[in-house]
């Protein structure tokens, strides 16, 4: 182990079994307590932002409010809708909760410490591809939402599940791409080594000037960090991307039929643990991990022993507060805007930024052929611009044609008295009694009474 | 690769786990094609891919294993489920899931498996490779793909890109042929009145026919 940069991959895999169990139990307990007090913290903070007090009855400052809510959920009647797919219905809350916890196993909390005489890193485990594990766990968590939506056999739930699957898969791509620049910069996919790489920035040598490089990837890879900050809201279904449970139009979305009881508590638990997971990834990959920021890091002991756990915790609270702040500030986006933003803005921007960063990186390799790289870069930029202009004019022409067509339709509608000049839903669909074919009695038209199943 | 025969008996814990994962993968793959419930078939596919990923993990191919989970479990089967739910998503058994081509399909499957197994056994029966931790990390795999196998990799990328563009062209109804007369019967023609015509439009193209079928199937299921 290098005392200045903390543990690397070679420090893992030597823990005795009892130590691994202690670490796993510790992570589990911390996450459970984190959810209990995270709910309280969110409610309290958002209340203060809205000039209210928030929960203040149960316990000091309302601290026991979540405990009371949890007890209430445990004591409520467990309602199982009659026609659900029972296995899937019961499995969905488990599938959504377990991966959320598993992803935390690769989160580094601190450097090497001594636990009962054993030198060990403050991290359950690490892999050469640890960040992929986090992404994979996030993608398995989607099944919980999709299956909850499908298994509970309700149109609202299935719409929520559909929205969620499309949204999470789309935002996962942008999220994965925002990691690419970090991998390029760090040269590794292991979480502990990415933290170690952010220990101290190198220097940029620009025209003989030594400019110290910032050590946090959030600063040196700012576009990646901004995109990640947006996608982590989308990935966890939080405001402003909480369409899977948009209560304005979908009752409760995918968990509509999990009306009470501990199964609903599992969904709440998974949502908050997921928030902690993406926050932990943000801290580890972009915000220097467990390392103390500059004013504290002047003190020599700041990055040794158990102190880094405190810095990690403070960063986690701040990132979580950012989630709450966003929730208090932004309205929910519309679904088509959400998808368009993910696919047409975040992913192309991300790809362009990765290309740019890779070019810069290639230019800094000492024995690289700079003229060749610059020519290649220029060709790509010119080609990209040419394609963009071509499609821009084409799309503009298409938009104008579409506008003209809509205008034409409105002209036609204004002349039709039964439509009242406005576009109305077609009244001859089977579930309307409105328009009947000639010579048919009204009893022949059967009303469709319920949903999509 | 060496031709030195390692100790195979007694089997190590890894070998036992690998065999069990193989059994799980095979069993869940059989369930995918035999189950009568559409969504359960997709879920058994998840189990199958998960067991494969576990197999990769036991063989120290960590990168491949997690990419398998990320892409196949996390994206492809989710898209399958998405497609199922967008169209019908039945709960319970569906009668239409049984195919009359059962025997032919089974023959082709067994034949393909036989060819693959024969080739692998003929080619690698006496070759053994020692498993070293870290051998399947991203660095080694990346070096191998982008140095030794870069041409097949790029050819595959172009193939995927072509498939992607093909899918977009097939699914978009607003790309019209250059000759407008050929598209006169299309559902999105600008001369269509704002009220949709009768519930069974003439199946001028594939998309219209599919939508009609789905709609009528849903109504009849609700009635019965």
From TrEMBL, chain B:
Classification via Pfam families: Oxidored_q3
Database matches in PANTHER family: NADH-UBIQUINONE OXIDOREDUCTASE CHAIN 6
Superkingdom of the source species: Bacteria
Protein's recorded name: NADH-quinone oxidoreductase subunit J
Protein topology in the membrane: Multi-pass membrane protein
Biased segments, Low complexity type: 179-189, 205-217
Keywords: Cell membrane, Membrane, NAD, Quinone, Transmembrane, Transmembrane helix
Location in the cell: Cell membrane
Biased composition annotated in UniProt, kind: Pro residues: 190-204
Family indicated by similarity: Belongs to the complex I subunit 6 family.
Organism: Microtetraspora malaysiensis
Catalytic activity line of the entry: a quinone + NADH + 5 H(+)(in) = a quinol + NAD(+) + 4 H(+)(out)
Transmembrane portions of the chain: 16-34, 41-59, 65-86, 106-129, 149-170
Chain residue ranges for the region called Disordered: 179-224
Enzyme Commission identifier(s): 7.1.1.-
